């Protein structure tokens, strides 16, 4: 199984719009151009794979459901722009053969409509879609937050991870069902799902206790199972990540791993979450019913 790209939205938004990832540029025009070229590159890669490859090929996208902060028209419109910008910018051309509706409004003068030839290239048949899911976002209108003119609102009473992401497993079910509802039945794989919590730098015992991560994974596996119950063709799930690792611009400061890494010595130590996922796999999911704290996250 092959993927043409992983998280093209992050490449475009973090690399060319906000400059927090390489190459560190901050340009609306470059961001719009990068998105178009990423989609063209995806289509070209699928074509070459079909000509020479064996197996299956897909695209991996990071998705984040958007909810309005209020019923005000401005907030509803901001939410629609944010949804098109993050969740539909790459899937609509690949699976529907057209750009997301509100992108001209988002990019303004920097927007160049894709040509018919480009759209044909972008819409190469894929065998599956990979979904990276971590959180949702509650959105309000914000004219200063260009180019989308929308910003996130932190939710009182919600649990947040060390990366500032709200824990909201119900939105995991919603995003998986939403793909089916918008694009039809397409095989899905959860290619990333996980959370960074405040794990110690040095392991004092084995396993390293990480109950919040166990609760997070349990809640999200149950949310994925609910999507399957509702008819979603979900074929696989990958936790992010096996090891504590290098998290791009955040370096080694955020720990997502199921296995603890002492970065000074490179010693690896199981966490409770690794044992939890092992037991889920061994029991084919039956152990989820007995997981302590399985109802801790009900968002």
CATH architecture heading: Alpha-Beta Barrel
Mean pLDDT: 96
The CATH first-level class comes to: Alpha Beta
CATH topology: TIM Barrel
DSSP strand count: 10
Percent of residues in beta strands = 15-25%
What sort of overall outline do the alpha carbons produce when their principal axes are compared?
A: globular
User: Major sheet: order of its strands?
Assistant: 1-2-4-7-8
Low-confidence stretches: none
Q: Count the DSSP helices.
A: 9
| The CATH homologous superfamily | Glycosidases
Cα(first) to Cα(last) distance is 33 Å
The helix fraction, in percent, is 25-40%
How many domains would you count in the coordinates? Answer: 1
Q: Helix- and strand-based class? A: alpha/beta
Question: What is the C-alpha radius of gyration, as a whole number of Å?
Answer: 20 Å
Element order, helices and strands? EHHEEHHHHEEEHEHEEEH
Outline the biggest β-sheet: 5 strands, parallel
Would you spell out the secondary-structure blueprint of this structure?
Elements: E1 2-6, H1 8-17, H2 28-52, E2 57-63, E3 66-68, H3 73-88, H4 91-96, H5 103-107, H6 116-122, E4 128-133, E5 137-141, E6 150-152, H7 169-183, E7 188-192, H8 211-229, E8 234-237, E9 259-262, E10 267-270, H9 272-282
Parallel strand pairs: 1-2, 2-4, 3-5, 4-7, 7-8
Antiparallel strand pairs: 5-6, 9-10
Name the descriptors.
299 residues; alpha/beta; TIM Barrel; five-stranded parallel sheet; three-stranded mixed sheet; 9 helices; 38% helix; 15% strand
Provide a descriptive summary of the structure in words.
α1 packs antiparallel against α2 and α7 runs parallel beside α8. A hairpin with a 4-residue loop joins β9 and β10. The chain has 299 residues and is an alpha/beta fold.
């Amino acid at each position: 199984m092959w993927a043409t790209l992983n998280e093209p939205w992050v490449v475009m938004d973090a690399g060319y719009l906000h400059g927090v990832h390489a190459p560190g540029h901050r340009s609306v025009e470059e961001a719009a151009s990068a998105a178009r070229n990423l989609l063209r590159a995806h289509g070209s890669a699928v074509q070459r794979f079909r000509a020479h490859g064996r197996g299956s090929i897909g695209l991996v996208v990071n998705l984040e459901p958007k909810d309005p902060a209020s019923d005000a028209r401005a907030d509803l419109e901001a939410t629609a722009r944010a949804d098109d910008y993050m969740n539909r910018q790459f899937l609509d051309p690949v699976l529907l053969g057209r750009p997301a509706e509100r992108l001209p409004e988002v990019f303004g003068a920097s927007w160049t409509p894709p040509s018919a030839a480009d759209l044909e290239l972008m819409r190469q048949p894929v065998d599956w879609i990979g979904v990276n899911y971590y959180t949702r976002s509650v959105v309000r209108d914000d004219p200063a937050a260009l180019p989308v003119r929308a910003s996130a609102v932190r939710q009182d009473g919600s649990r947040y991870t060390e990366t500032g992401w709200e824990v909201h497993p119900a939105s995991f079910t919603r995003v998986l069902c939403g793909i089916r509802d918008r694009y039809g039945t397409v095989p899905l794989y959860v290619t990333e799902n996980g959370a960074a919590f405040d794990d110690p730098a040095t392991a004092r015992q084995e396993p390293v206790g990480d109950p919040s991560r166990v609760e997070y994974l349990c809640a999200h596996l149950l949310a994925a199972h609910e999507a399957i119950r509702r008819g979603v063709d979900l074929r696989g799930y990958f936790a992010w990540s096996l090891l504590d690792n290098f998290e791009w611009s955040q370096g080694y400061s955020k720990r997502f791993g199921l296995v603890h890494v002492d970065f000074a010595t490179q010693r690896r130590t199981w966490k409770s979450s690794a044992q939890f996922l092992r037991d889920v796999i061994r029991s084919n999911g039956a152990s989820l019913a007995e997981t302590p704290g399985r109802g801790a996250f009900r968002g």
